[in-house]
Amino acid sequence: METKFIKINNENPEENLVALKEAANILKNKGLVAIPTETVYGLAANALCEESAKKIYEAKGRPSDNPLIVHIAEKREVYGLIGKQLSDIEFKLIDKFWPGPLTIVFKKNKLIPKTVSGGLDTVAIRMPKNNIARAVIRECGFPLAAPSANTSTKPSPTLAKHVLEDLDGKIDMIIDGGSCGFGIESTVVQVIEDKIVILRPGSITKLMLKEFGDVEIDKGIVDKNIKAKAPGMKYKHYSPKAKVVLIKGDKEKIVSFINKNLEEDEKLGIKSLPIVYEQTAHFYKEYLTIGDLSKADTVAKNLFAVLRKCDELGLDKVYIEAFDEEEVGLAIMNRLKKAAGDNIIKV
Ligand code: TXA
Ligand code: MG
Description:
It is built from 11 helices and 16 strands. The protein has 347 residues and is α/β, with parallel strands linked by helices.
């Protein structure tokens, strides 16, 4: 299949109505279109059509028990997809955070196919802020199921060219709407017995949610031995081909540990680099910078592009300095830990 690549201006997508209609037509005909969102690029299909949703799993190589997020264009559309009235907390969360990077898990109704919900009786819904994403949904007239538009296990795409790298020839269309503002996927929450449970950390943090009720972080996120509530959290993710080693601990010790390892790698002919911050870059001869240590948002925005860069450079190994695990840092470290798998070293 030939993958069509088109650019649309995110400030005013309606300027390019022909392209929007073309994307909508593909989706109406059960095809797949990669769309920009404010978090990462999503691989969209008709969320109400079993056959369309199946194609997402095939194109990504995604395990079938990992449910998809359903994207809507207007808040009110949530009522047509859920099987239970909104609770007071859910209503307030929607009111405050939509459109934006918050996904809420609800009881699903019959319209949501089992393929989309990964066999669960719940459905994850979010209303993206990105204008193109919402314009495409409106043009379709149905909600769009859209996981991140990467091949399963790879870092999520924050640029249209990342989608092309992974899915060229496997999907019908990619809409290039520029770089994604947040750079990490939405926060996923579920309101369980009046508690807001964070199933996947993101840019909407515990502190921001606290105003609306008690907030708990799903233990499965922080403890590898506990089963995570979001099926996707158990899978390997965000990994470049290079072996990723995450180093935690005292800042000075981290620097000396990494430099020692880089020297040893060089002797052995292993191609390695450190992934560091603007403040620590000067401690190394060569490096990739991921952002400003004091500005988590910059780190979140650059994170996946830097991990993809490792493959572009053909690296065998990368050493990443740990980030402070507070607020957005919790989401950053969650992605870094996944990328590192078991290679987490405390110095
Ligand atoms: O920012 C985002 O959320 C992006 C953009 C494209 O919207 N999408 C995204 O989708 O990250 P995906 O499929 O890569 O991640 C969805 C996560 C997975 O961890 C999945 O297990 C969880 O949400 N999830 C989806 N439906 C769920 C459900 N019913 N119950 C629990 N977790 C669910
Ligand atoms: Mg994903």
